[in-house]
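Table S2 (continued). Query chain:
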Amino acid sequence: MSANGSGAGLAGASGGVVRRVAVGVTGASGALYAVRTVAALLSAGVEVELVVSEFGRRLLRDELGETAAVDALPDYLLNRYGEGVRAGTLTVHSNRDVGASIASGSYMCESMAIVPCSMKTLAGVAHGLSRTLIERAADVMLKERRPLVVVPRETPMSLPQLRNMVACAEAGAMVLPAMPAFYQGPRTLDDLADFMAGKIVSALGFSHQLYPPWTG
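Corresponding output:
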C-alpha cells in the first residue's frame, strides 16, 4: 500500500457497481472504531479513500500498537478481520494533500465518515476552514449534498463544542457520537466497536450484520 494515495493495499472485487467512500481518522480516542469501520466497508466491496491526520497516525499506534500503523494497516485489517476485507480496495492519502482526488466535487466519492472526529476537526468542518484534506473532503460532501457522518469522541463537552456540532448538523452532516449501546449484550471491546461501526455504515447507506437489530 502506498501512503501517498497512489496505490491500493487490498485486492478489489471484480464486477458490479463500484461504491467509493472517504474515511477520515483524527486524533480523538477511538482507533478501534476507525479500523472496524474501514474493515466493514472493505468487506462490503467498497473503495475506501482513507485520510489519517498526524495525530490520527499516533492514535492508531498508541491504542492498537505498531502493527496498526498506517503503512501496515492492510495487513492489520487482514489479520484482525479476515479475508473478507479483500473484497474492497484501500487507498491512503496524505492529510496535507489538499489537491488529492477527494478534495474535488467532480470526483465521485459518494459519502464520508470522520471516525473518530477530534474537536479540532469538528470545528474546522463546522466553519468550512478546509485547512487539511480531511476538512476539505468534508466540505466537499456538504457542498455537494452528499452524506457526511461525523463521529465525535469527547466528554464532557464545552459550549463551543456543542455549538460546532449544531453547526455541522445545520450544514447537513449527521452527528453520530461514539456512544455504544448495551442492549445487544456486548462481552468484549470488539462487540462495542462492532456496534459503532454498524451505526456508521448504516448511516452511509450500507446494510450489515455487525450487531443484532432491536426487535422489541
